[in-house]
Amino acid sequence: MTRRGAAASLHRSLAGFVSHEDPANVLSLFAAKARQHGGLGSTDLACALRACRGSGKLWPRVPEIHAATVVRGLRGDRIVSNLLIDLYAKKGLVQRARQVFEELCSSDNVSWVAMLSAYAQNGLGAEAVGLYRQMHRSGIVPTPYVLSSVLSACTKAGLLVQGRLIHVQAYKQGFCSETFVGNALIALYLRCGSFKLAERIFSDMPFCDRVTFNTLISGHAQCGHGERALEIFDEMQLSGLMPDCVTIASLLAACTSVGDVKKGMQVHSYLLKAGMSSDYIIEGSLLDLYVKCGDTDTALEIFNLGDRTNVVLWNLMLVAYGQISDVAKSFDIFCQMQAAGIRPNQFTYPCILRTCTCSGEIELGEQIHSLSIKTGFESDMYVSGVLIDMYSKYGWLGKARRILEMLEEKDVVSWTSMIAGYVQHDFCKEALSTFKEMQEFGIWPDNIGLASAISACAGIKAMRQGLQIHARVYVSGYSADISIWNALVNLYARCGRCKDAYSLFEAVEHKDGITWNGLVSGFAQSGLYEEALKVFVQMGQVGVKFNVFSFVSSISASANLAETKQGKQIHCRVIKTGHTSETEVGNALISLYGKCGSIEDAKTQFSEMSDRNEVSWNTIITSCSQHGRGQEALVLFDKMKQECLKPNDVTFIGVLAACSHVGLVEEGLSYFKSMSNDYGIQPRPDHYACVVDILGRAGQLDRARRFIEEMPIAADAMVWRTLLSACKVHKNIEIGELAAKHLLELEPQDSASYVLLSNAYAVAGKWASRDQVRKMMKDRGVRKEPGRSWIEVKNLVHTFFVGDQLHPYAEQIYIFLADLNDRIAKIGYKQEKYYLFHDKEQEQKDPASLVHSEKLAVSFGLMSLPPSVPLRVIKNLRICNDCHNWMKFASEVMRREIVLRDVYRFHHFNNGSCSCGDFW
């Protein structure tokens, strides 16, 4: 055989192997021809490239064939170049594909389509549109295939405007009737959310193929329009087209999106009859249907019958058990997966990590995290995002932050999870700092990130930053997002901007429970307690369902107003709606009764709780302490430890206050030392102030001063004020002046500091020094807060000031008070001199003007309330010795219980004694 004949024979063999999809033999013959005959032509090179296209294993030969093309001077050959463009594009090597395209001697429509497809496949929509414009300028008339390719690129990149322009050109050239152009247009409009346009193109198409119907069904299914997707499937069947695997998978997705498991079962029956159940894609879609619809048993049956080498099926079973928070079965599936030799992918770890997060199995989550490091998935953005979320939700913020900083490429999910974690645990400054950092990295926040940042602003009442983020919401196009509106309502309410909060609230078109609760909690947290309760009442009137957050916020508002009656009404609603078992609600009720003076009700509520946490114990301990039941508070503290609950810094505030109120000096100091020694808790300024109070009340002022001097942190105003108050009681001017000096340096505009020092001088009889302090106060423009007392009578709160003559019943009150003074004097009451005024001042003043507000409030209560109702009085300052003594005698003579809440604690007066044991 001649050399030419042998070459021709080899060429025919090459072509034959390509047609029979035998790439290995193609390349063997190709190499043989190159060695023996050397004269490789474009057809031979094209055969070899087609063989490489059919097998991923042969990809390394592509650059060699490309090199052979260049050596043989076939660089600009269209057939070879088009194949090279296609191969490089499929490998993501778009720049190489473009280089081959640029080297073409003359580009035909096939070349343009190949390059446009390369851009489309790699998500480079803008580049595809740019290339199309270049083609248009070159005078090349686009074919329907070209238009289809560039439209596909616009679809993948979400370029609706550019896609519409190309739609216009396709219409002008009469290509809209072409099925594949119509299919590309439908995909474009579905991708961009223009469902009406997609449907109109579908109805105008003269011929629809299976791709048309599949595109529509899939598009509607992905957007949650399951019912419409099922309707299109019915139309498809009426047109005589048989569904394929893509159709069935889309249909199953449609059933999943609407939760229609019955229709899904019908599709399941159809695919069993059609013999399609073993398809790789359908198996996953079918399992996804039963998993998302909550039919775990059927899902497990399908999983057991399916391809156990398919990692997607394993992941779906992890999701199935995660949905029902069955961490044991989820972990069992994960272990089976490893035993079967199935390598987890980037979706496996998030599936089981989310289950650990929902179930609170943080330690197991840590183990999964370790495994993800070993398998090299920790740096995956998807896995890291879930890890950050898990650690953040359980307060492991340091660990979450380290994962975020380790990521080379941080996405919006990772940043947002970190921000939300900070907000959840009240690290609002850190949340806002991270929010700013995210933007500096060029990441645009999503709706969740914006809502979290707004919540952070609310947490620290950063109204200025909140306004900036509010403006950003409109720029970002999230102005209709309900989660952002809810966060904004809470922000304005929490910052005390009542009108703005109401305006935003009214602007929310579809208010949900979160919207209402945001307003209630916002007002409650900003001190607008009456507004909070007003909104709570409105919630009930419009039929909004109350939840835990509604009750906690409204009960807290009632507690801060000492509104016992309204608090009890809310308690009744709690019982009626079945929320009594909620721990947070129970805690709020303990606080309510404690702050309203009903310590027995608080103890009853605590004892009836089925599930108590640290907050429950802290609240009851603090309540007992404030009501003078220090020994009970300490017994509760011991019981708390027996329940294996670890005390925190709040617990020790209650414990130390209990020791202070009952005079347990050494015990209090022992508890203070145990904070750091036994529990690893670093004392805060509040704890140091409690110790100073313990020593000060016991009269150990020198010891209290030394304690302050030895503190590892600088003493704040609270510490010095506590010492000064004790010095006034015990008439120690030397240490009192020292405390006042530091206090006035720290808070020169606080009236309480001047008043305490002035009173200390008055008690010691140093009138000149007292007058000097008063003059200093006047010169500095500091105004004293007047003493006030409140009492509720017949649903009205009555306010009294010292020597009050403005009350409508003032005359009757003073007559009643004079009579009561006579009665209690007969059993031993002696009025103390008004020690804040010297004798000459007292002679010049009307005796009525010196009557303290709490005496007037109690007298009015005794006149107005039935004998069976305890008197509950609130005072904004500390009760004085004389008033305290007077109330003991009044309770004995009138045989009434009097509960007085001053700025420090509760006093329960009954039968001539006080719960504080005269130690306050």
How would you describe the overall organization of this protein?
With 920 residues, this protein is mostly helical. It contains 50 helices and 6 strands. It has a 6-stranded mixed beta sheet with strand order 2-1-3-4-5-6, covered by helices on one side. Helix 13 (210-222) packs parallel to helix 15, helix 25 runs parallel beside helix 27 and helix 35 runs parallel beside helix 37 (614-626). It is elongated and about 125 Å long. The chain starts with a helix and ends in a 6-residue tail after the last strand.
Radius of gyration: 40 Å
Return residue spans where pLDDT drops below 50 for at least 5 consecutive residues.
1-23, 33-37, 841-846
> What would the average pLDDT be, to the nearest integer?
84
Number of helices: 50
**Order of strands in the sheet with most strands:** 2-1-3-4-5-6
Question: What key phrases describe this protein's structure?
Answer:
920 residues; mainly alpha; 50 helices; 3% strand; elongated; disordered N terminus
